[in-house]
Every structure is written in structure tokens, then in C-alpha cells.
Amino acid sequence: MEKTNVFKRSFASIKAFWGRLLNKLSQWRYDFMQTKPMLFLKKVFGYLPNLLANKISYRKRQALWGFVFVLPLIIGFIYFFLLPFLVTIVYSFSRVENLGLNSSTGEHIGIVSEWIGFDNFTYILKEHSTFRQTLTSSFTTAFFNVPLILIFSLIIAVVLNSKFKGRSFVRAIFFMPVIFNSQAVDAAMQTGAQLAAAMEGATADIFAQMFNFQDFLIDANIPVNAVNFLGTTADQIYDIISYSGVQILIFLAGIQSVPKHLYEAAKIEGATQYEIFWKITFPMVSPLMLTAGVYTVVDSLLRSPLINMINVFATAGVRKLVNGLGDVSYYGIHASMSWLFCISSIIIIAIWLFLLSKLVFYYDE
Prior knowledge:
By secondary structure, the chain is mainly α. The chain has helices at 2-33, 36-55, 58-92, 119-127, 131-161, 167-180, 183-188, 193-210, 213-219, 224-235, 237-243, 245-256, 260-268, 273-285, 288-302, 305-311, 330-357; strands spanning 94-98, 111-115, 318-320, 327-329. The strands form two sheets. It has a two-stranded antiparallel sheet with strand order 1-2.
């Protein structure tokens, strides 16, 4: 009992001490702010805001503060995107040379560019050994990945939205490929890349010997074109799953935002789950297909081997043109490849936005 009273008295004394200390600090701060120098600074720094408040209407002040908050974004857009964008255009039509460092001062001398027209594009499209083929294959894969990944993601999102035991664990499993495909994990696991590739190849050979999916479809009298498409899709099932993590979350969020009374009314009317999906779920989440489709295209292209091929030319160097007397620089080749990559990406995104927009249903309309 005595120990309890000692603790209570000690706690009360500490609490009283902190209370007195905070009161002293508060009083000191108030006295400090009332001194003549601080009052003068307060008047100086408050002059412009008070002037604006008196001279400018409330609506204009809102617009002004909106511009102030957007200003860092505008500066970042101009400095980090617009200027490099314009420089890339110039470099794609130029031979660029880095003059290096001054031997005496150690300062960078600068970069010199010489206009050479379409020589960079001529090199990468006609004289480069693999760029054109890699560009075609990468964008063909990215184009056909969109319907496969969207269909798979929507089906998995519908399944994960239903109630069953261990639903949170299953959701985490489907999102794990997004984490494991990050740059940090990829860099940490590069030491075991060869072993993983060997194991994957051995596993693929084992399953190929056990069951050949394409031979099974051919024996079932399926057309050859359909067999090739389904066989390619089956071979890419791991990539489809690993690319679908974010899309599943997008569709899952969209499904959970569908008004519950629509499902309740459909069940009262005796609609089946198949009819509910096509009449309610699919139309309500269809606007999200545009977002998921753009993300799928960009994600597929950024994972393609074309990126590594472009980055090879990000350093200094010069290439002789086979059909011509001039030469082109690595910087110019890099800029030209980047532009072709960008233009092709925009074309694919535009095509899929046009196609997916035909399936979109807006509930508010």
C-alpha cells in the first residue's frame, strides 16, 4: 500500500512539474512574440498577404493559391520532361559528341551536335541487326497481352471478391508477383538468376514431355491458328499471372464500389450469377478497363528486351554508316530508338483505347 502511494505521489509531482514547465514555455513564447523586433517582422511578412486579402476577391485568391500549389509541378514538368523531350528530338536528327572534361580544370567542356537528318533512323531500321525485329516482337507481345491480362484479371477479381476462407491470403498471393518483380528484389536475386533459369527450363521440359497442349488441341480438330494462339497463351501463363497484380486490384476496387442494391434486386428477380456478371458487374467495371489497359501496355513494354537494347547506346561512341560516308553517334541512335519506342507505344495505346471504349458503360449517363 505504501509503495502504491509513493508511485502516485511521484507521478503527481512529475505531472505538476511538466505542467509548470509548459506554462513557463508558453508564457515565454508569448512574451517573445510581443517584443518590438518580432512585431516588426510580423508586420513585414504579413503586409503582402493582408494587401492581397484587401485588394483581391476571394475567388481570385483561391485561383492564385491553386497556381502556387501547382507551380512546383509545372517547374518539374518543364525541367524534367519538356526540356529533355525537346533535346531528344534534336539529338535524334543529329550526331552528338561529348567533348569530355578539361584536363586542367576538370570542368565539363560541353556537348556538340551536328544536324545529319534521318541518318540515325536509317541506321537503326536498315543497318542495325536486331532492332527492327525486337521492336516488332515486343510490340506484338504487348498488343496481344492486353486482352489476355484484362480477361484473366477480371475473372480473378470476381473470384477474390466472393466470400471464402483464406480470402486475404489468396489476395496476397496474387499480388506477390508485383512485389517480386520490383527493381530492388530483382537486383537482390540476380545472383541466383542462372540457377532459376536452369530450374525453369528443366521444369518446362518435364511438363512438355508429360503433356503437350498443342498436340492435344490438334488431335481435337481445332484450327491451326487457334492452336497456335492458345499454345502461345499457355506458354505465357506465368507472365500473365505476374503482370496481372495491379490490374486485379483495379478491378477488385471497381467491383467493391458497385452498389449492393443492384445485386440484391437481380437476385430477387431470379437472375443467375452468369446473368449478374454480364448485366451488372461487367458494365459497372468497364470504365476501369481503359486504365487497366493503358497500364498493361506500358508495363509490358517496360519489361520488354527492347529497353535493354536502347540503353546499350546511352553511352558515348560512334558508328560508321555502311551505305554512306558519314557516321552516327550513340547518343543520336539512343534518341532515335527512344522516339520510335515512344511513337509505337502511343499507337498501341491509342488502338486499345479506341477498342476498349466501345465496351465502356457509364452508370451516370
